[in-house]
Fold this protein.
Amino acid sequence: MKLEGKIAFVTGSARGIGKSIAMKLAQEGATLVISDVDEAEAQKTSLEIKALGRDSSSFKLDVSDPKQVDEVIGKIVEKYGRVDILVNNAGITRDGLLMKMKDEDWDKVLNINLKGVFNCLRAIYPIMLKQRSGKIINMASIIGVIGNPGQANYSASKAGVIALTKTAAKELASRGINVNAIAPGFIDTLMTQALNEEWRNKLIAEIPLKKLGTPENVADLALFLASGDSDYITGQVIRIDGGMAM
């Protein structure tokens, strides 16, 4: 039990990669706070964690709203007294070619994917500074490293998360707080499952390992970064992409 007694807060954790991370941390002993814009699904995930014998709470949260973020983190501290692990996972896509991209699609993606991370970091700062400890994991993307046609907004947001991670890591290192980012490649989620067979095969052909990653692969990496095993690692962007950007 690498995380026994730890309080972990995972945004966008009702389903997909976020849920896999939350379940993995719970399996290793952490108390989990689940948040998502889908309140019903967040509650279901929280109940699944409780079925594992771990304490869990859930909140409806739009991370792009700083007031909501402050309120939720305030409630977490009121209930548990601390926050040891923050996983900034909440994110969306609104794809389209750059020349045709609508202002609202650009703004929506940047507000959730990048400003949402900023909002959570700013709210958690005083708590972890007082504790003089903490693990922060920001979900970036390989698209933020190499770019991708039709994803100008998404790639810009994830590149911003990478830069924000490095800055936060430098600001917080002296207080014993680790800040790292995970940059997944193509993971077998509902989004990739919705692709037709031809596109999936083309996608897999571009990956040196010739297969998609799984949410569990990402969760295993998140567990490493959340645990004491990564105490001497900070400011890093760890790619989990099957070798795409080697």
